[in-house]
Design goal:
With 565 residues, the chain is an alpha+beta fold. Helices cover 37% and strands 25% of the residues. It contains 13 helices and 21 strands. The longest helix is centred in the first third of the chain and has 47 residues. The chain is elongated. The N terminus is likely disordered.
Length: 565
């Protein structure tokens, strides 16, 4: 016969069995309540009512540690509602339970040194006996359950203490689950609001106008929402107005000021006031209604295609830079403070320049404040040196490369650039433009279109096949590595003839990479699937990454010179 073990022991009496069943029933009821709602207050209110009734006590309450590191009563049941009562973590029997992390059973509260008698005096409730147990989650005390006064005027017993300790873990778990759920919901809400704010700000940026339009701009956010802005517009007489700005501060106030400043500058600029008066009028409006402590750095101006002349004024932005192939770099510093600081009338000086074959660069300080690994600023001189290395590229590619150069450093602030340049010296023709999904099945169509483009500029068959192979490898790398074989993402390919060069612009929307991170493999130790960059490097005359105009994803630029016979 099997020996008797504790597992098979019969309860000593039916009363013990009934008590065990009641405890299991209470646990089941509490679990059902926890599943029904993720609202902490609803969960705890139901819990304290059930606990009070089951423990046959006069009152029950739950205290949770709040953000101020105090114990806040989140739910109570009894003749006096103490919900929202706040006590210090070291005060009272509740505080002692919290600090020690151990259950407290007090037979006569009036004789306990930590008993807070003034609460009874304020509420009229008489505390006789107390039973408290900590709520512990992941070895950390997050609150306390308190039960007061047995209804039969008896004392809490060891059985009551054990029951309360049994109920504490599922309550602590439910609280943490509810908090986690609320945090996830809050994070989603914040992300949604940031997405909407970003869309609103992006909607204020101008749509791209194809060449030979003489103004090109780009904006990259250092954070979720940018405080920079720019815009350009064409007036009835053919003159092109433009502006660029940077709002101080962060958060909602700065974002709202950015929207207001951008709209205000565009509205005033439509009247074709001289740039100095344009800024003066905007300054007056912003001083009247701008939030205290916030201001706007801005530059505004006009480009007249008939005379090839730019006239502008600068209030607080970095120096304006001019570079042409046949001249030295010139720059003009801002001679006026930012907008929105001084209510008195300010004078904004104007500058004027004939572009000829050069470009005029306007920028925010996010570019010059970019830091390298040693924390050193890029500064204006560093940016100017890089401008010299990209002046042979088209304006769109040029500002993309300049932004990418700054992003290789660490951007501490939003970076925005406007380039004003006459485009007739660059003979540019769009040969093809396509958007396709990151599905290997699309490669056949891509190969066909690339071959047609190569044939259009009279490349021989061998060169055509080599270029097709390069593009095939580049697209495959995007699908495999950038998109992780997700077949539902987008890829854009634009093919241009620029002077005597065929240029391929391959754009994805994955997290940014730089050409310094992607290098040809060692041909002495080739590995399967790692030779794509070597093909591109050996076939193309040059390739590099740049930041797309809208600041998102990657733009791979590959060039192949067209041999002129």
């Amino acid at each position: 016969m099997r020996p008797e073990t504790s597992l098979f022991k019969e309860p000593k009496n039916k009363q013990e069995s009934a008590g065990t069943l009641e405890q299991l029933s209470l646990l089941a009821d509490l679990s059902q309540d926890f599943v029904k709602s993720m609202d902490i207050d609803v969960i705890l209110k139901r819990a304290v009512v059930r606990i009070k009734n089951y423990m046959q006590s006069e009152a029950a309450s739950v205290f949770l540690l709040n953000k101020e590191n105090k114990l806040l009563c989140r739910a109570s049941s009894g003749p006096v509602d103490v919900t929202n009562m706040v006590i210090e973590t070291h005060d009272g029997i509740v505080g002692r339970t919290f600090i020690q992390g151990e259950c407290q059973m007090i037979k006569d509260a009036s004789k306990d040194a930590d008993f807070i008698c003034h609460v009874d005096e304020l509420t009229g409730f008489q505390t006789k006996s107390v039973l408290c147990t900590p709520l512990i989650w992941n070895d950390k005390t997050i609150g306390v359950i308190q039960v007061l006064n047995r209804l039969d005027d008896g004392l809490f017993m060891a059985r009551d203490r054990d029951i309360l300790r049994l109920l504490a873990p599922p309550i602590a778990l439910a609280v943490q689950n509810a908090r986690f759920t609320l945090n996830v919901v809050e994070q989603k809400r914040i992300r949604k609001e940031l997405t909407l704010a970003r869309k609103l700000q992006r909607s204020l940026l101008p749509n791209r106008i194809k060449p030979p339009f003489p103004v090109v701009g780009t904006n990259v956010s250092a954070n979720e929402v940018s405080g920079d802005f720019y815009d350009y517009f064409e007036l009835n007489d053919g003159t092109i107005g433009f502006f660029i700005g940077d709002v101080s501060g962060k958060g909602l106030d700065a974002s709202m000021l950015m929207v207001r400043a951008s709209s205000l500058l565009r509205w005033i600029g439509k009247d074709k006031l001289p740039p100095g008066q344009w800024l003066a009028k905007a300054n007056k409006e912003l001083c009247e209604k701008a939030s205290r402590g916030l201001f706007v750095c801005a530059a505004v101006g006009y480009y007249d295609p008939k005379t090839d002349t730019v006239t502008w004024s600068n209030a607080g932005l970095p120096p304006v830079i001019y570079k042409c192939p046949a001249c030295q770099i010139e720059s003009w510093r801002a001679d006026a403070p930012p907008l929105g600081i001084k209510h008195s009338a300010l004078s904004f000086e104007q500058q004027s320049l004939t572009l000829e074959q050069g470009g005029l660069y306007f920028l925010t300080d996010g570019l010059t404040d970019a830091r390298n690994d040693e924390g050193e600023r890029l500064e204006l001189d560093g940016l100017i040196e890089h401008i010299k290395t990209v002046e042979s590229d088209s304006p769109e590619v040029r500002i993309g490369k300049l932004i990418t150069f700054a992003r290789r450093h660490k951007l501490n602030d939003d970076a925005t650039m406007l380039l004003i340049e006459k485009r007739d010296h660059l003979k540019e023709k769009i040969i093809d433009n396509m958007t396709f999904q990151s599905d290997p099945g699309q490669l056949k169509e891509v190969r066909c279109r690339v071959k047609q483009a190569c044939q259009a500029v009279n490349f021989d068959e061998t060169t055509c096949q080599e270029i097709i192979l390069s593009l095939d490898e580049a697209v495959t790398n995007i699908i495999r590595h950038a998109y992780k074989n997700n077949t539902e993402e987008s890829i854009e390919l634009e093919i241009k003839k620029q002077n005597n060069t065929l240029v391929f612009y391959l754009r994805d929307f994955a997290p940014e990479v730089y050409d310094s991170q992607i290098k040809p493999r060692d041909l002495n130790n080739p590995l399967p699937g790692q030779m794509g960059i070597n093909f591109i490097d050996s076939i193309m005359d040059s390739w590099e990454f740049a930041t797309p105009k809208d600041g998102y994803g990657n733009l791979l630029i590959m060039k192949k010179e067209i041999k002129v016979l």
